[in-house]
Every structure is written in structure tokens, then in C-alpha cells.
Design goal:
This protein is of the alpha/beta class. It contains seven helices and seven strands; from the N terminus they run E-H-E-H-E-H-E-H-E-H-E-H-H-E. Helix 1 packs across helix 7, helix 3 packs parallel to helix 4 and helix 4 packs parallel to helix 5. The N and C termini lie far apart (about 55 Å). The structure holds 1,4-dihydronicotinamide adenine dinucleotide. 1,4-dihydronicotinamide adenine dinucleotide binds next to helix 1.
Length: about 260
């Protein structure tokens, strides 16, 4: 008979995970992957119809998931969703802060102030709202995990997207600071930095432009798929990832390591 030789667990089966922005792109892929791995999924999104469809797919495949309509920038809604899902599932083990928007604007653009405010609210402040609401429940978990989705835009910069770039740099700072603050309680806080990925956010970039960008800049010469990022997130959320905290994991096909 086979005997297990190691101690730590590489399964999230039975864990409760909240994925924000789960109606599309990487959030959808993350919800589906965690469900495949046996986790119980709370899928939240501003797009209520979209997130209900994702949950239907998960439930039809024989897994457990519940859909929540949620604007992650709204504190009262965040508190209400966390309260509902913890009541439904009996707790919360893993929080994936994934919801995001891209609102490009030059610094002297007419819409700058509004785009700055909404970007910071959805991409940065929202992480603090979900973490604050989730914390009492994560404290009850045997392997509490927080994974924040930043971006390679948190490690470098592109012209004309300063609200997004500033917010994503700040998500890395928030991740590091909370890793230090929550470490004594065994709560890990890590960050994934996706590179160029085929999702709703990049769907309006013409295919030719995507191919050319990938050819010039990405070591693997292609855009990534949402599921490839979801696997990075899953790795940081495993019970076995118990000594990994405060890290920034690029899932970028080698974008950030290329000099030429
Ligand atoms: P997506 O547009 O396919 O999905 C984003 C989801 O977030 C949508 O379902 C949307 O409804 C939801 N959302 C937007 N605002 C929300 C709010 N206030 N409350 C709740 N849900 C909200 O985009 P994608 O690419 O899957 O984005 C996921 C994360 O990945 C974002 O944080 C984004 O900044 C980040 N990212 C994306 C990259 C890419 O190349 N697609 C690269 C690096 C980072």
C-alpha cells in the first residue's frame, strides 16, 4: 500500500474561496479552476447576469458555487456579500481580489479626475474593503490565504494609463505591508502580476497588434490564457503554500525579464 511521505497538502478541496470579478476573464477561469479542484466557490461580480452564468456552468459540472452581484468599491455591498457567503458556506478560507477595470487617460485629459477616482476605488481601495470584511472569517481558517491580482503594470509602466499603473504598483505595496501585518496570525498575502492575457479587458486590442506586441516583448511569443494565470493564483492559495508570503508572482510569459 502507498504511504504519503510529505506533510503538506496540495489540495483546496472543501475550502471556501471568494473570487471577485468572476464573470469574465481571469476571475471566471479562477472560479472554474478552484471548483474543479473541489473548492466551494463564492463568485462575485458587478455583472450579475454574467456571474450567474459562470456559476451555472460550475454547478452543471457537478461542483459547488454561489453567485453574488457586487460592486467591490462599495463597502456596504462588500460587507453584505461576505456576511451572506460565510453564512451560506460556514466560513471563508481564500480571498482572491481579482475584479478590475482599465480606464486609460493622459494626465491632462478632461476625464482624468473621474478616471483616477474610479480606478483607485476599484483596483486598490476595494482590496482593503474585502480584506477587512473577510479578516474575522480568515482568522478562523486553518490555512487562510489572500491573493491580490496586480499586473505587470505594477512592475513597470505604459504611457497614458497612470491611474491604472499607480493603483497596480500600490496593490504590490499593500500586499507586502499586509503580509508583514498578518504574518503573525499565519495569514499569507501574495500577489499575482499577469502580463498580456486574452480576457474581456484586452478584447478590443486588434489581433495583429496583440501578435506583434507578443512577438517583440514576450519571451513565450504569445498572449496568455486566463487559466494559465488562475494556476498561479491556485499555487499561492494551497495549504502547502504556508511559508510563501509577500511575494509578487509574474505570470507574464517572460515579459518582465526581457531586455531586448
Ligand atoms: P475582464 O474585463 O475580463 O474581467 C474583469 C471582471 O471584473 C469583469 O467581469 C467585470 O464585470 C468585473 N468588475 C469590474 N469592476 C467591478 C466592480 N467594481 N465590482 C465587481 N466586479 C467588477 O478582465 P481581466 O483581464 O480578467 O481582469 C482581471 C484582473 O486582472 C484585473 O484586476 C485586471 O486589472 C488584471 N490584469 C489583466 C491583464 C490582462 O491582460 N487582461 C493584465 C494584468 C492584470
Amino acid at each position: 500500500m502507498e504511504k504519503k511521505l510529505s506533510q503538506l497538502d496540495r489540495s483546496v478541496a472543501g475550502k471556501v474561496v471568494l473570487v471577485t470579478g468572476a464573470a469574465s476573464g481571469m476571475g471566471r477561469a479562477t472560479a472554474r479552476l478552484f471548483a474543479d479542484e473541489g473548492a466551494r466557490v463564492a463568485a462575485a461580480d458587478l455583472n450579475e447576469e454574467g456571474v450567474r452564468d459562470v456559476v451555472s456552468e460550475i454547478v452543471d459540472a457537478g461542483h459547488e458555487a454561489v453567485a453574488y452581484g457586487l460592486d467591490v468599491g462599495n463597502e456596504a455591498q462588500v460587507e453584505s456579500v461576505v456576511s451572506s457567503l460565510t453564512e451560506h458556506f460556514g466560513g471563508l478560507d481564500i480571498l482572491v481580489n481579482n475584479a478590475g477595470i482599465s480606464l486609460p487617460t493622459p494626465i491632462d485629459g478632461d476625464e482624468y479626475a473621474a478616471r483616477w477616482e474610479r480606478s483607485i476605488q476599484v483596483l486598490l481601495t476595494a482590496h482593503t474593503l474585502t480584506i477587512r470584511a473577510a479578516l474575522p472569517h480568515l482568522r478562523q481558517s486553518e490555512s487562510p490565504r489572500i491573493v491580490n491580482i496586480a499586473s505587470t503594470e505594477g512592475l513597470g509602466a505604459t504611457r497614458g494609463t497612470s491611474p491604472y499603473t499607480a493603483a497596480k504598483h500600490a496593490v504590490i505595496g499593500l500586499t507586502r505591508s499586509l503580509a508583514v501585518e498578518l504574518g503573525p496570525e499565519g495569514i499569507t498575502v501574495n500577489c499575482v502580476c499577469p502580463g498580456p492575457i486574452h480576457t474581456g479587458m484586452t478584447s478590443e486590442i486588434p489581433e495583429d497588434a496583440k501578435k506583434e506586441f507578443a512577438r517583440r516583448r514576450v519571451a513565450l511569443k504569445r498572449y496568455g490564457d486566463p487559466e494559465e494565470v488562475a494556476h498561479g493564483t491556485l499555487s499561492l492559495a494551497l495549504p502547502a503554500a504556508s511559508y510563501i508570503t509577500g511575494v509578487t508572482l509574474p505570470v507574464d510569459g517572460g515579459l518582465t525579464i526581457r531586455n531586448a
